[in-house]
Amino acid sequence: MEVQVTTLAGDCLTFRCKRWTLRDLKDAIKRATGIRMREQRLISGAQEMHEDELLTDGLQLTLIRRPLEQVRILEDLEDRDAKRVLQKVPEQYRADREVMLAAAASDASCISLADKTLRECRDFILAVLKRNGMVLKFLDAAMQDDPELCLAAVNQNGYALQHVAARCQSKSLVLAAVSTDGEALQFASQSQRADQEVVLAAVEQYSWSFQYATEDLKFNREFLLLTMACNGRALQHLSDEWKKDPDIVLAAVSEFPGALRFADPELRSCKPFVLALFQRRACTLKYPVEELWEDRDFVLQAVQIQSSAFQAASAAFRGDPEIAMLAVQRHGYTLQFASTELRAEKKIVLAAVRQYASALASAPKLQEDREVVETAVRRNGCSLRYAAQTLREDKEMVLLAVRQQGFALQFAGERLQLDQEVVLEALRSDLSSLELVRSSLWQDAGFKAQVRRLFGDDPDVATFMGCSVKRRRLLE
């Protein structure tokens, strides 16, 4: 896209860009000419363009430099109290479109200080409302009844709805307001607050706005189910009667798991209901009542549904072998929540590392146990990192690890990281583990010959073997 800018001195500047707003162009002009963005006015035909407008290909603009006094006023409006600044400026600036636009955007009440010609100019008022919807409050009755002006106001600030007369509040207008600010529902007419679509739009934006719905809607069960599905947080604003309703609470929790904390305590302590929530993965662990986590039957069922429930169980049940076994069989990471005694229980730890090799990290007393470590590295070679030093220096164990995952080489003992057989097995498993090879091995002609024989045709190997000594030292 190409845009031409001509100055009053006759200079022509050409800018090529992809997708710019006028602000982007002004920044480019500043860099090309040194004229500050605030000083620039860009005219297309007889109309001044505004900073949020998108440029079009082939656009021809005229650059006019603002008077320094106007620039100073605009800067003061930006940095200081707009109304005080405006009260002190020369009278002609109250008829200046740009000065008054900046002032009203900062303080809506400044529109009352504008020259009469601007206050009666609909296009100017529309531009102002798009910058500050609350200006609607200070307009005359005719403009407050103008649908387009009202829509511009509430699109910018939903709270501007309070300045729209009830007779002018169309459904589309109120929807625009509550979609911008849900709490604007409080300023809607009675008929709009009884409209399900309007209330749902408000609640979706802000759950608290449910309190402004009509009483009929607040006791309409079908509507409440829709509301909870729209924003589960709204459950907190329902009457106690509805907080006991399983279907309504389920709808709320399905949309927002944390909504369970707003449900009636009796429902939060109901085993079948809470287990049903776990089944749907629609429940945050901390919100069922504490007493449930001291019920062995409940914990057993919860763990079978969702292994993470194990961490919320009471200390006694986290030391229960049957419950712990069920949890680690579903997901080995839950071993970390088991009691210290159970994390030293070989049968439970084996079940955990079979499912999740890194569970070995949670069993420090069994990190020297060959069977446990071997089970872990067979599933994930890099779990070698959690093994005791004696096993990380055991060649058979390390070979098992690097064959499963070449990058496990980095967790082998110092001596085995220099063992050519171990290193070659790591490379066979994952050639990207080349970066783990110690530089001293690259000094060995026999090792390099074996690497060339096994992987010589691979461009990465050739590149790596030809890399500088400095790079190899950095890799160490």
UniProtKB/TrEMBL annotation:
Lineage: superkingdom: Eukaryota
Ranges of residues in domain DUF4116: 121-164, 171-218, 220-268, 295-343, 346-392, 394-441
UniProt cross-references to CDD domains, sorted A to Z: Ubl_ubiquitin_like
Pfam families: DUF4116
Coiled-coil annotated residue ranges, if any: none
InterPro entries: DUF4116, Ubiquitin-like_domsf
Name the UniProt record assigns to this protein: Ubiquitin-like domain-containing protein
